[in-house]
Fold this protein.
Amino acid sequence: MSHAVIIGGGIGGLTAAAALSRKGWQVTVCERAPSLEPVGSGIAIAPNALKALDTIGVGDRVRALAALQGEAGLRAPDGRRLLRTSAEAATARFGDPTVLLLRSTLIGLLASALPPEALRLGTTVHAADPRTGAVSTSAGDLRADLVVAADGINSAVRRALFPGHPGPVHAGATSWRAVVPRPEGPEGEVRGSETWGPGQVFGVMPLVDGLVYCYATAPAGRAGGEDGAKAKLTRLFGTWHDPIPALIHAAREGEILEHDLYCLPSPLPAFHSGRVALLGDAAHAMTPNLGQGACQAIEDAVVLAHVAGAASPVDLGPYTAARLARTTKIMRRSRTICRLTLWSNPLAVRARQAAMAFAGRLGDGNATRQFEDVFTWRPPAS
């Protein structure tokens, strides 16, 4: 039986392990953390990723958690609608919803699709040889027919394979994420929306079980101060339209994640070398503005398993050919939107709002049309 070693137990790594296991591979997932308690809060699984998850038997379990309903779109800080759509219209257009769920829930679903002996927690990978497939770990050496490097944006494997390629760069923004209980009273009517102000964004997405996923971005350094994340969010967004102030108030200080955003400034020349394949953020770290970081990692995983087939040796050239151009396009588009959200000049902000409002008047479909080539992707047929 062919053996695959997966470096990293995040969403991409676990999806790859599940997909390869279904192809008949023996899989070993090396995760340096002592448990699969994930860093993160909410995550969006778009129609393209749902189709990929169908190939490992998890898609319908994610669909069952869909909570987005009714009107959605882009708004101004005073509450004015700029672009309008609905969850139902998007589902009709793309054949599937976009599902917002807890990252921990998705990790649990993916882990349940693995053989119990596949996970090696608390195991750090020191090196992987692309020529021989030898993998050096803190728990001993492994030999692999295929090595999958899903070790994140600061991937040590990527640096070893492509030492001359530039590493991650700061995207110019700081982000905050939190999952909060849905407010009671008038503010409790939470619809999916994203609000754009001068250089700032606040997103609101309902989850199941009376929870709401909130995310926000602002230019790095704008929040100022040495106080907590909640105070920063209040300064930046406390006067914006309902229910944003109530959601910030409901957030627990210690559960707000605050991070600067980084991404790869240019695409890699390839996503493989010898027996080693790069996947997810290790291959194409992007800003979160299209909500496609995890979705593209899931796509990578099922395409890689398709290319690998049932046995080694594996020619990874078709994997790079299938993934490099697509992820490069999405990575660049996401970075462009990130730059657009950081516009702070009053004239530029007014022009941006006017352009959005004009697009909205042309029809509700304009808010979803930009995702056409992203969401309509389908996994390769076996």
